[in-house]
């Protein structure tokens, strides 16, 4: 579990494709350097979020660590496009003393989105994003949370019909996360707020268990609320 508050930006110093020893079956191993700030309490087997993807530490030193990336993860995230020298957002898993400055982030990427447009607004930048899987848009709401490359950000606008949402990034954040330097055509990892998924599943289960269709049950709920309001006004 993570918070979406990026602790530091690391650098991919080594990338080995088809590294069976670390990736568990033909994936890729990544060595991330320039990250001593998050390794003072590191242990083998720890979880670290790399661009929003939860990965396991297989080796580490004072200023670098190594992870294995499976073929499935390479397909579902933008980690497959990393090269030696690429910057990556890093965050350690939460502890009992962690301040929850962002929101609950699992490190399980739902889809990739492409930066469709960027607009400067003073010293801030608005990013418009179009997801590869349009189905995730039902979990994106204005003023809600979304995790982009592991960073917790606030949605400023959504257009379900055209299939995009926007976030605005202030100047400080632009310097602290890799997305700040991304422009039109580049990819970002997306994890939607998992609370929305739980709510959706719970509501669906309630309707299924009621023996009535969702529409009919919703109509009854609304009618009950209207009746209660009328009684209170008498």
Automatic annotation (TrEMBL):
One of its GO terms (molecular function) is riboflavin synthase activity. GO terms for biological process: riboflavin biosynthetic process. Pathway: Cofactor biosynthesis; riboflavin biosynthesis; riboflavin from 2-hydroxy-3-oxobutyl phosphate and 5-amino-6-(D-ribitylamino)uracil: step 2/2. Pfam families: Lum_binding. It is an enzyme of class 2 (transferase). The keyword Transferase applies. It comes from the Eukaryota. Its EC number is 2.5.1.9. Keywords: Repeat, Riboflavin biosynthesis, Transferase. Lumazine-binding repeats lie at residues 1-103, 104-203. Residues 1-103, 104-203 form the Lumazine-binding domain. PANTHER family: RIBOFLAVIN SYNTHASE, RIBOFLAVIN SYNTHASE ALPHA CHAIN. Catalyzes the dismutation of two molecules of 6,7-dimethyl-8-ribityllumazine, resulting in the formation of riboflavin and 5-amino-6-(D-ribitylamino)uracil. Homotrimer. This is Riboflavin synthase. It comes from Friedmanniomyces simplex. The lineage of its organism: Eukaryota, Fungi, Dikarya, Ascomycota, Pezizomycotina.
């Amino acid at each position: 579990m993570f918070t979406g508050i990026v602790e530091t930006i690391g650098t991919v110093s080594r990338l080995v494709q088809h590294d069976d020893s670390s990736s568990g079956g033909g994936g890729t191993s990544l060595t991330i350097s320039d990250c001593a700030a998050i390794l003072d309490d590191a242990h083998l087997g720890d979880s670290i979020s790399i661009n929003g993807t939860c990965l396991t530490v297989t080796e580490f030193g004072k200023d670098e660590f190594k992870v294995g990336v499976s073929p499935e993860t390479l397909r579902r995230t933008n980690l497959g496009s990393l090269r030696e020298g690429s910057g990556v957002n890093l965050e350690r898993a939460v502890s009992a003393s962690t301040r929850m400055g962002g929101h609950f982030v699992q490190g399980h990427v739902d889809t990739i989105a492409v930066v469709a447009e960027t607009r400067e607004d003073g010293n801030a930048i608005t990013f418009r994003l179009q997801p590869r899987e349009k189905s995730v848009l039902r979990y994106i709401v204005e003023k809600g949370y979304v995790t982009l490359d592991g960073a917790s950000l606030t949605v400023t606008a959504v257009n379900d019909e055209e299939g995009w949402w926007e976030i605005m990034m202030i100047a400080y954040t632009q310097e602290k996360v890799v997305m700040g330097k991304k422009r039109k055509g580049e990819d970002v990892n997306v994890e939607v707020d998992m609370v929305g998924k739980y709510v959706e599943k719970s509501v669906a289960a309630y309707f299924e268990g009621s023996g009535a269709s969702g529409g009919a049950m919703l109509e009854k709920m609304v009618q009950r609320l209207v009746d209660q309001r009328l009684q209170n006004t008498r």
